[in-house]
Amino acid sequence: MNKFKMNIPFYLPALLFSLLMTVQSSAQVTATHTRGKLWESLANFGFIGDGGAWDYQQISAIGLYPGFTGYTYPDHEERVYLWPKVTANFHNFRSGPWIFAKKAQTLVPPDYHAEERDFLFYHASLANGETGTLYSNPPFKTRKNFIGADDFNPLLPEEMNYSWFHTATGITVKQRSMTFSYPDYDDFIIYDYIFTNTGELAFPALNDTKQLTQTLNDVYITFHSGIQVSTKGILNFHYDENLLAGVAPGGGFLGWRASDEGKGGFMNYYAVENQGADGKGVLYYSRNYNGGREPIPSSMDPYKIRNNWENFIRLKSDWLPELQDPACFGFVFLYRTPPRNAGPDPFDADPNFVNVYSDERDNFKNKEVDFENFGLDLFKVNEMFEFATHNFLPPNEGNLYCWYTSTFGPYTLAPGDSIRLILAEIGGVMDLKQVALGDPDNWYPDSSITAIRKNAEAARNAVRWGVGGYEAGIQVAADAPEPPPAPNCTAVTVSAGLDTPFIAVRWDATAENAVIKDGAGNVFYDGASDLDGYRIYRTFDERGIWWDPIVDIPISDLGKYWNAEESQYEYWDKNLQFDFEFKYYVEAYNSDPKSWTSINGSVVNQLGELVSDDYNQTPLVAARPGPADLANGWDVFVVPNPYVEGDPERSFGEPTPYKIVFRNLPEKATIKIFTVSGDLVKTLSHGPDEIGNLFGSISWDQRSEAGLHVAPGLYIYVVQSEVEQYKGQKTSGKLMIIR
User: Fold this and answer.
1) Taking Cα atoms as reference points, which of 60, 54, 66 lies closest to residue 41?
2) pLDDT at 281 over 90
3) Above 70 in pLDDT, residue 14?
4) What is the pTM of this model?
5) Alpha-carbon radius of gyration of the chain
6) Residues 6+ away with beta carbon under 8 Å from 311
7) Is the Cα dihedral 182, 185, 189, 190 positive or negative?
8) What gap in Å lies between CA 373 and CA 387, rounded to an integer?
9) Coil, strand or helix: which one is 556?
């Protein structure tokens, strides 16, 4: 790959992907996972990721970790330097399985007689070449099984996507992926593959299959993935001064190059762990060389560094710049049918071959391994087999962009025989509040490494507790102990006057009414007796990925917070300032869970405290003052005035750094903002909210009617009352914007 990417953002895997999408437009050819902390996009031919994931115009959350709605990511290179701060941290570049059937027969046109071939091949994750599957595969079947819902089934994961498809090898693939929202089990997506010798040979040219019954004597299953954890820092640290040429930092995915001559580099380390007979499958992952603490050294950087990068990514003036790339990200193998001459323990799921290649740095068969064109246009199938069945680990010096290839085999598959492979896409990150603070105590990388190892153990446990279980016709792959369901909560301003700000956090009794049974049919959680209390959390982070606790309410104190009028619990948050915005969520906790039996009969004791997740977090809300009474005259003022960008005393900071507030307004008013020369910039309409609440303030984000940020300088505002008794009365003032 090279840094000049905008001319080819979709041309390679994206072209194939878009063709598949066009042909199958009437079916559910894509699916997503958004229930846990890790979000992902899938296609129904085995592809994990997104065909447009090269640089910009990325619209799906491929390996977004942690996942959140409303992320920002540039839509064009020429606008990247003017783009709002990039918040998305994408990690999975292009992943999926391959199948090799060695010395196997296929059917040869025009009469479709049987002939032996050196290899039959299917792939889901190369940049080019026929995938070996049809263009009209069955659509995904998606099942949402959210805890707290009336039809929640505790024996199944919360979110499942199922697809199946025939391949050119005569092996049919069933893929079921699944996620949980439960804390400690929400940092991974589990993929359960079953490869069965059905004899249904896929012919893409026909978009159909033909039957050929045979024993496949040498079958190899490969999983191939590209992992990049340096996505956000690239775009928030750097820019290319030659914007008009359409050249910008190589997206989040492409890292950097030291120069256009010779070998450049990227900025990741890799790890391959748990190889050997330890009862655990291999865990591999990448991590950024410095966690995105600061830009790379200028001697290695062909791009320009933003002049204000520290303030650009700093969340509060007294904090360090937020770490941009703090996560470890990769895959862990959890279960595999043992190949010939392998150990019998299916959970000791080590591949027979593992290699790690860095993009543009390493060679195979005297060809540069450039994953922009790595596929059947560059290598023959026999060469791809050689690639998949050799071991290679490059020097690990923190200047890599790693692609991982892991292969299991050989297997012998008689007609009807199957291979099962279970793995998890997985992330691990240090405490996200410390990430936001800028890692003042230098926890990175140790804490992130510890986190991904811990999450890998959780995934291993979930599979050990699930494999062998059946429910609702589903061959279960994973199970986990359920926490209390999260309460539904809201946050509303309840400030009555002009002096004291309040926000009321309200929540229901979902966690108290729930009863959850385990795999033995025993009551594992009964909210009437097992709920121990609630904790309320608050953040000004618009992503809602890190939180500060504000109150712990034990079950014995719940009666103090019951609001009979609202038929909900209510807590008033009082340590606030007007117009600063926050999100909230309410956590239900079970401090001493009972013994739990999983779907396959595993008994787990001493689980430790179980808590609900933050999926029911509120939108951003600000405490706002009540309306002014014009009987006492006008007293409108602007906060801050002057506005000074980046000054904590003269701006609201994150998550609304450009916010300007008009206060002491009547119930209804129109505010018009003009330049000093009299040009109308913006009109604001102030009135009750959607449920009739009245306020005395309205905010402006410094954008014009055209949606553009206004220039710094002096502006005139005119406020006109729309209150019936005082309709048409006006007042005016000035405000200053300094950047």
Assistant:
1) 60
2) yes
3) no
4) 0.91
5) 28
6) 646
7) negative
8) 15
9) helix
Yes or no: say if 172 and 216 are a contact pair by the CB < 8 Å rule. Answer: no
* pLDDT of the residue at 607: 95
Structure tokens at 154: 């505790």
Distance in angstroms (rounded) separating the CA atoms of residues 738 and 642? 7
Tokens of 434: 């410390």
Q: Is the pLDDT of residue 257 over 70?
A: no
Residues 6+ apart with CB under 8 A from 169: 99, 100, 101, 104, 120, 121, 122, 132, 201, 216, 219
Residue where the block lists tokens 């593959």: 193
CA 365 – CA 386 distance, rounded (Å): 10
Residue 11 has pLDDT above 50, yes or no: no
Contact assessment for residue 449 and residue 334, using Cβ atoms and an 8 Å cutoff = no
H-helix or E-strand containing 232? Answer: helix 232-237
Burial profile 378-391: b = 16 or more Cβ within 10 angstroms, e = fewer: bbebeebbebbbee
* Residues near 150 by beta carbon (within 8 Å), at least 6 away in sequence: none
Query: Measuring CA to CA, how many Å separate 177 from each of 31, 42, 329, 472, 478?
Result: 10, 9, 18, 16, 10
Residue 1, pLDDT score: 37
Q: What is the rounded CA–CA span in Å between residue 269 and residue 251? A: 19
Place of tokens 């940020």: 709
Residue given tokens 């878009």 in the structure block: 18
The three-point CA angle 318-645-231 to 5° equals 70
Nearest to 306 by CA among 54, 91, 55, 80: 80
489-622, CATH topology level? Immunoglobulin-like (2.60.40)
- Which two structure tokens, joined as six digits, stand for 178? 């699944």
What does the alpha-carbon distance between residue 267 and residue 438 come to, in Å, rounded to a whole number? 19
Q: What is the structure's pLDDT at 15?
A: 43
Number of residues assigned to the chain: 739
Q: How far apart are CA 166 and CA 609, in angstroms?
A: 44
Among 313, 251, 327, 332, smallest CA distance to 37 is for 327
- Give CA–CA dist 374/389, Å, rounded: 16
Q: Please state the three-class secondary structure of 20-52 as a single string.
A: HHHHCCCCCCEEEECCCCCEEEEECCCCEECCC
Check: CB of residue 78 under 8 Å from CB of residue 242: no
The single residue listed with the structure tokens 């890998």 is 456
Please provide residue 364's backbone torsions phi and psi, each rounded to the nearest 5 degrees.
-135, 130
**CA 158 to CA 251: how far, in whole Å?**
33
SS (H, E, C) 674-701: EECCCCEEEEEEECCCCCCCCCCEEEEC
The pair of three-digit structure tokens given for residue 48, joined into one six-digit string: 């994990």
Domain-by-domain residue ranges, the chain? 489-622, 630-738
Please check whether residue 233 is in contact with residue 324, taking contact to mean a CB–CB distance below 8 angstroms: yes
Instruction: Work out the widest C-alpha separation in the chain, in whole angstroms.
Output: 95
Q: Which residues are within 8 A (CB) of 453 and not within 5 positions of it... i.e. 6 or more apart?
A: 273, 283, 428
In this predicted structure, what is the pLDDT of residue 26? 37
Token code pair at residue 277 = 């007979």
Instruction: Give the pair of three-digit tokens for residue 257.
Output: 């190059």
Q: What would the pLDDT profile of 368-381 be if each residue is shown by its tens digit? A: 888 878 999 999 99
Residue 240, pLDDT > 90, answer no
Residues 29, 268: Cα–Cα separation, whole Å: 33
Which residue, chain included where needed, has tokens 């049987």?
Answer: 114
And the tokens for 94? 């292009």
**CATH class for the domain made up of 630-738:** mainly beta
Compute how many other C-beta atoms are within 10 angstroms of the C-beta atom of residue 9: 18
